[in-house]
Amino acid sequence: MEKELSNMDIALFALYKKGGVSHKVHTEEIAWEAYQLAKERLSWRLPKFRQMGFPDKTPVRFALEQAKKRENGKLVSGRSGGDASGELEGWRFTSQGAIWIKENETRILENLKQKAPNVPKREAERYVKKIRIDAFFKYFQEKGTLDEASQYMFTDMLVCAPDASKNIIKQKFEQLYTNAELVNDLEILDFLRACKERFSDLVA
């Protein structure tokens, strides 16, 4: 049945199982998990190495690179290997990727004959619960708007220093947004959309 899935399907589901909604996952961790899901497809080609159970990282890395592209929905962010900017090796889902997982999880599970993993959603629910008890969310519930909200209130919710770089603020906000998308918490998503509009200069 795995033949009905693309390498991207398998790589993204492996990333999901390893907790890629809530944190960055190393390429080799994803490749190993993907290999457990589709050994015939993702093992080395030579028989002596296939018997040793060596996963082939190349198709998994390529699938993740494809999933990162705008034309494929920008489902993940990250990279394989280091770069001059200092970005760490690894991958995580974007908010678009969380939507993709919700829409495709059942299809992938049926093809792989797998049960739905519980850990990713539990981790996402933990993130969302933190937002619910945050003073900034309560402010939004009371006011119904963020028109007069300060940048400090926003960065405090993200557990960022007020002078944190735009890149760090954007990453932390995207992490919250992705987790809220996975658990489909409409109230929190409405709040985060208001944050995105109010602080577009920081998270756009």
Which SSEs are present, and which pair or pack?
Layout: H1 7-17, H2 27-37, H3 39-42, H4 47-52, H5 57-68, E1 76-79, E2 90-93, H6 95-112, H7 119-132, H8 135-143, H9 151-157, H10 166-183, H11 186-198, H12 200-203
Antiparallel strand pairs: 1-2
Helix pairs in contact: 1-2, 1-5, 1-6, 2-5, 6-10, 7-10, 10-11
Question: Number of domains in the coordinates?
Answer: 2
Question: Which architecture of the largest domain does the CATH hierarchy give at level 2?
Answer: Orthogonal Bundle
Q: Report the portion of residues in β strands.
A: under 5%
Judged by helices, strands and strand pairing, the structural class is: mainly alpha
**Total number of helices:** 12
Mean pLDDT figure = 91
The biggest beta sheet is recorded as:
2 strands, antiparallel
H-E order: HHHHHEEHHHHHHH
According to DSSP, the number of beta strands is: 2
In CATH, the topology of the largest domain is named: Arc Repressor Mutant, subunit A
Helix fraction bin: 55-70%
Instruction: Indicate the CATH class of the largest domain.
Output: Mainly Alpha
Strand order of the largest sheet: 1-2
Unreliable stretches covering 5 or more consecutive residues: none
C-alpha termini separation: 40 Å
Q: What is the 3D form?
A: elongated
Radius of gyration: 19 Å
